[in-house]
Design a protein that fits this description.
Order of helices and strands: HHEEEEHEEHEEHHEEEEEEHEE
CATH class of the largest domain: Alpha Beta
Number of domains: 2
Strand content: 35-45%
Helix content: 25-40%
Length: 273
Amino acid sequence: MRGIIILVAAILISSGAAAQEIDWKKIDDALGRSAAVTGDVHRYGFPRTDLSVTLDGVAIKPALALGGWTAFKPVHGGAMMMGDLVLLESEITPVLTAAIENGLEITAIHNHVLRASPATFYMHISGHGDPVKLANALHTALAASKTPLTSPSSAVVPEIVLDTEALDRIVGVKGKSVGGVYQFGIPRRDPIAENGMSLDPVAPLGLATGVNFQPTGNGKAAITGDFVLASTEVNPVSAPCVRTGSKSRRSTATCSTSSRACTSCTFGRTTMR
């Protein structure tokens, strides 16, 4: 028993040392911005502030559906990186090529907002190894697009002209104002693992259901969201969306939760009563 206790303690100490060895400033410098830190996960945002995208006459704010990101989590052997990049169709091949040539993996390419002009696509990336090399590889891949690579400048944030208290009450969690959009993030409550490794905390690693409200005037909003679901949950969750007029955008397997597939299902609609 004593030997088991010593072994467990050694593993915990080793894990903590690995996290401390990462020089996060080098990652910040490579990516040209600082991270939002939750637990041991460092998450970097890459909003497509350079794009002017409209859908059904609504000018989409980056915080509604154009917010690319990547997250780094310390693991044995360096870091695990995963992210979601927002790209134009013409940028997919150059970014994909640069990412693969620099050792990153592409795990999905899909669409979130149909009928948008110009059309935007979402490329899921991942990597494992030296965190500085991963950051440099990501920078090289992003440089093949027109994604802004300098830290976003602070701008005047428009007021959220919606009954946010009512939205908080209906959704059941408190939202937050980000770039003129009222955002909700609802993390999965069940354990999620990838290749046998626990993904925790889940929210900054992209495993939280997100729902965003962009005011469009007169108490209405453009709404989009991304549900993180077990495969058995997709149809039960989709049914009420269909009944209320929400439009399903996609459904694709993205991870594993225990022994079940975990699916991300995006929906949207343009008005709220």
